[in-house]
Amino acid sequence: MPHNHDHSHGASCADESHVHDHDHSHESPDAPADNLFARIDHPNVVALNCEAHQPAKILKAWHQRMDESIAIESDADDQMILRVPFTGVVKLKSVLIKAGPGEQTPTRVALYVNDEGLDFDDVAAKPSTQEFEMVQSRDVGEYQVKAAKFSNVTCVTLFFPAAQGADTINLYYVGFMGTWTESKKEPIVAVFETQANLSDHEKIQGMDGAMQSPPT
Protein backbone atom coordinates (compact mmCIF):
# COMPACT_ATOMS: atom_id res chain seq x y z
CA MET A 1 0.00 0.00 0.00
CA PRO A 2 1.45 3.39 -0.90
CA HIS A 3 1.83 5.76 2.02
CA ASN A 4 0.39 9.27 2.05
CA HIS A 5 3.40 11.40 2.87
CA ASP A 6 3.10 14.48 5.02
CA HIS A 7 6.19 16.60 4.43
CA SER A 8 5.43 19.39 6.86
CA HIS A 9 8.77 18.64 8.54
CA GLY A 10 10.68 18.48 5.25
CA ALA A 11 11.66 15.33 3.38
CA SER A 12 15.37 15.81 3.52
CA CYS A 13 17.72 17.26 6.06
CA ALA A 14 21.32 18.37 5.98
CA ASP A 15 23.63 18.96 8.88
CA GLU A 16 24.12 22.53 10.03
CA SER A 17 27.89 22.59 10.28
CA HIS A 18 27.98 25.55 12.64
CA VAL A 19 25.99 23.78 15.36
CA HIS A 20 28.20 21.18 17.03
CA ASP A 21 29.22 20.29 20.53
CA HIS A 22 32.30 18.29 19.63
CA ASP A 23 35.34 18.44 17.37
CA HIS A 24 35.05 16.14 14.36
CA SER A 25 38.80 16.16 13.78
CA HIS A 26 39.57 14.05 16.86
CA GLU A 27 38.22 10.66 17.88
CA SER A 28 37.92 9.35 21.42
CA PRO A 29 41.23 8.14 22.91
CA ASP A 30 39.77 4.65 23.42
CA ALA A 31 38.47 4.34 19.85
CA PRO A 32 39.73 1.52 17.65
CA ALA A 33 42.49 2.61 15.28
CA ASP A 34 40.37 1.79 12.22
CA ASN A 35 37.34 3.82 13.32
CA LEU A 36 36.51 6.33 10.58
CA PHE A 37 34.61 8.93 12.63
CA ALA A 38 37.19 11.66 11.96
CA ARG A 39 37.16 10.87 8.22
CA ILE A 40 33.44 11.52 7.71
CA ASP A 41 32.51 14.73 5.89
CA HIS A 42 30.03 15.61 8.65
CA PRO A 43 28.64 18.91 7.24
CA ASN A 44 27.58 17.18 4.00
CA VAL A 45 25.76 14.18 5.49
CA VAL A 46 22.20 14.06 4.13
CA ALA A 47 19.11 12.10 5.18
CA LEU A 48 15.90 11.70 3.17
CA ASN A 49 12.54 11.21 4.92
CA CYS A 50 14.09 12.25 8.21
CA GLU A 51 12.49 14.64 10.69
CA ALA A 52 15.79 15.75 12.26
CA HIS A 53 17.70 18.77 11.00
CA GLN A 54 21.10 17.33 11.88
CA PRO A 55 21.36 13.74 10.61
CA ALA A 56 25.14 13.76 11.20
CA LYS A 57 24.54 13.81 14.96
CA ILE A 58 24.13 10.01 14.95
CA LEU A 59 27.58 9.63 13.34
CA LYS A 60 29.00 9.89 16.85
CA ALA A 61 32.42 9.58 18.38
CA TRP A 62 33.23 6.11 19.70
CA HIS A 63 32.55 6.91 23.36
CA GLN A 64 29.03 8.16 22.46
CA ARG A 65 27.95 5.11 20.45
CA MET A 66 25.65 3.75 23.21
CA ASP A 67 24.05 7.15 23.99
CA GLU A 68 20.29 6.83 23.37
CA SER A 69 19.56 10.50 24.08
CA ILE A 70 20.69 11.36 20.54
CA ALA A 71 18.77 9.79 17.64
CA ILE A 72 17.05 10.44 14.32
CA GLU A 73 13.64 9.10 13.27
CA SER A 74 11.98 8.67 9.89
CA ASP A 75 9.26 11.16 9.04
CA ALA A 76 6.43 10.18 6.67
CA ASP A 77 6.80 6.41 6.98
CA ASP A 78 9.32 3.75 8.00
CA GLN A 79 11.86 4.25 5.21
CA MET A 80 15.01 6.36 5.29
CA ILE A 81 18.05 7.08 3.15
CA LEU A 82 21.26 8.22 4.85
CA ARG A 83 24.08 9.49 2.62
CA VAL A 84 27.55 9.69 4.18
CA PRO A 85 30.49 11.23 2.27
CA PHE A 86 34.10 10.89 3.41
CA THR A 87 36.94 13.40 3.27
CA GLY A 88 39.12 11.04 1.22
CA VAL A 89 39.13 7.51 -0.16
CA VAL A 90 38.10 4.76 2.25
CA LYS A 91 38.66 1.01 2.21
CA LEU A 92 35.60 0.02 4.22
CA LYS A 93 35.66 -3.01 6.53
CA SER A 94 32.34 -2.79 8.34
CA VAL A 95 29.34 -0.63 9.15
CA LEU A 96 28.22 -0.17 12.77
CA ILE A 97 24.55 0.49 13.53
CA LYS A 98 22.57 0.90 16.75
CA ALA A 99 18.83 1.15 16.04
CA GLY A 100 15.47 0.61 17.66
CA PRO A 101 14.15 0.21 20.21
CA GLY A 102 12.26 -2.95 19.37
CA GLU A 103 9.95 -2.68 16.38
CA GLN A 104 11.55 0.63 15.33
CA THR A 105 14.58 -1.41 14.27
CA PRO A 106 14.86 -1.54 10.44
CA THR A 107 14.27 -4.91 8.82
CA ARG A 108 17.51 -4.54 6.86
CA VAL A 109 19.99 -2.07 5.45
CA ALA A 110 21.14 -1.82 1.84
CA LEU A 111 24.49 -0.18 1.07
CA TYR A 112 25.35 1.69 -2.14
CA VAL A 113 28.91 2.81 -2.94
CA ASN A 114 29.73 6.20 -4.50
CA ASP A 115 26.15 7.00 -5.61
CA GLU A 116 25.88 10.51 -4.19
CA GLY A 117 22.45 11.39 -5.57
CA LEU A 118 20.36 8.31 -4.79
CA ASP A 119 16.71 8.89 -3.89
CA PHE A 120 13.82 6.51 -3.22
CA ASP A 121 13.08 6.00 -6.92
CA ASP A 122 16.71 5.06 -7.54
CA VAL A 123 16.95 2.47 -4.76
CA ALA A 124 13.76 0.84 -6.04
CA ALA A 125 15.45 0.12 -9.36
CA LYS A 126 19.18 -0.14 -8.57
CA PRO A 127 20.77 -3.25 -7.05
CA SER A 128 22.60 -2.55 -3.83
CA THR A 129 26.32 -3.14 -3.41
CA GLN A 130 25.56 -5.30 -0.37
CA GLU A 131 22.71 -5.64 2.12
CA PHE A 132 22.14 -7.13 5.55
CA GLU A 133 19.24 -8.25 7.68
CA MET A 134 19.09 -6.43 11.01
CA VAL A 135 18.23 -7.88 14.41
CA GLN A 136 16.55 -6.16 17.35
CA SER A 137 19.20 -5.38 19.95
CA ARG A 138 20.25 -2.62 22.34
CA ASP A 139 23.86 -3.24 21.30
CA VAL A 140 25.76 -1.88 18.32
CA GLY A 141 25.61 -4.33 15.43
CA GLU A 142 28.67 -4.70 13.19
CA TYR A 143 28.03 -5.61 9.54
CA GLN A 144 31.18 -6.74 7.74
CA VAL A 145 31.25 -5.80 4.06
CA LYS A 146 32.89 -7.56 1.12
CA ALA A 147 36.31 -5.95 0.87
CA ALA A 148 36.51 -6.12 -2.92
CA LYS A 149 33.31 -4.11 -3.34
CA PHE A 150 34.19 -1.45 -0.76
CA SER A 151 37.88 -0.78 -1.51
CA ASN A 152 37.55 2.67 -3.12
CA VAL A 153 34.73 4.44 -1.27
CA THR A 154 34.23 8.21 -1.26
CA CYS A 155 30.54 8.08 -0.28
CA VAL A 156 28.27 5.36 1.09
CA THR A 157 24.47 5.49 1.03
CA LEU A 158 22.43 3.46 3.52
CA PHE A 159 18.82 2.62 2.62
CA PHE A 160 16.49 1.35 5.35
CA PRO A 161 13.35 -0.03 3.60
CA ALA A 162 11.02 -0.79 6.53
CA ALA A 163 10.65 -1.11 10.29
CA GLN A 164 10.06 -4.36 12.13
CA GLY A 165 6.44 -3.51 12.90
CA ALA A 166 6.50 0.17 13.90
CA ASP A 167 5.33 3.14 11.82
CA THR A 168 8.80 4.71 11.83
CA ILE A 169 12.42 3.66 12.17
CA ASN A 170 14.80 5.11 14.73
CA LEU A 171 18.62 5.24 14.54
CA TYR A 172 20.88 5.97 17.51
CA TYR A 173 24.31 5.45 15.97
CA VAL A 174 25.99 4.78 12.63
CA GLY A 175 29.73 4.28 12.36
CA PHE A 176 32.32 2.89 9.97
CA MET A 177 35.48 0.84 10.31
CA GLY A 178 38.23 0.79 7.70
CA THR A 179 41.27 2.63 6.41
CA TRP A 180 41.46 6.12 4.90
CA THR A 181 43.78 7.70 2.37
CA GLU A 182 43.85 11.32 1.28
CA SER A 183 42.21 12.01 -2.05
CA LYS A 184 44.80 12.60 -4.76
CA LYS A 185 42.57 14.90 -6.80
CA GLU A 186 40.70 18.10 -6.16
CA PRO A 187 37.60 17.42 -4.06
CA ILE A 188 34.25 17.42 -5.80
CA VAL A 189 31.73 19.59 -4.00
CA ALA A 190 28.32 17.95 -4.24
CA VAL A 191 25.27 20.15 -3.81
CA PHE A 192 22.15 18.38 -2.56
CA GLU A 193 18.58 19.61 -2.59
CA THR A 194 17.54 20.92 0.80
CA GLN A 195 13.95 19.90 0.11
CA ALA A 196 13.71 16.76 -1.98
CA ASN A 197 10.35 16.22 -3.62
CA LEU A 198 9.11 12.85 -2.43
CA SER A 199 5.47 13.39 -3.31
CA ASP A 200 5.70 10.47 -5.75
CA HIS A 201 7.51 8.24 -3.27
CA GLU A 202 5.59 5.03 -2.84
CA LYS A 203 6.70 2.67 -0.13
CA ILE A 204 8.92 -0.01 -1.61
CA GLN A 205 7.45 -3.39 -0.78
CA GLY A 206 10.50 -5.56 -1.36
CA MET A 207 14.18 -5.52 -2.13
CA ASP A 208 16.02 -7.72 -4.59
CA GLY A 209 19.41 -9.21 -3.92
CA ALA A 210 20.95 -11.59 -1.43
CA MET A 211 20.74 -10.68 2.20
CA GLN A 212 23.36 -11.43 4.79
CA SER A 213 23.02 -11.59 8.51
CA PRO A 214 25.67 -9.92 10.68
CA PRO A 215 28.30 -12.28 12.04
CA THR A 216 27.62 -13.73 15.45
Automatic annotation (TrEMBL):
Family to which the UniProt record says this protein belongs: Belongs to the PITHD1 family.
PITH domain mapped to chain residues: 25-196
Superkingdom assignment: Eukaryota
Protein name per its UniProtKB record: DUF1000-domain-containing protein
Gene3D superfamilies: PITH domain
Region: Disordered, residue numbers: 1-35
InterPro entries: Galactose-bd-like_sf (IPR008979), PITH1-like (IPR045099), PITH_dom (IPR010400), PITH_dom_sf (IPR037047)
Coiled-coil ranges (or none): none
GO cellular component term of the entry, any: cytoplasm
PANTHER family, A to Z: AD039 HT014 THIOREDOXIN FAMILY TRP26, PITH DOMAIN-CONTAINING PROTEIN 1
Compositional bias annotation for Basic and acidic residues: 1-29
Protein's organism: Exidia glandulosa HHB12029
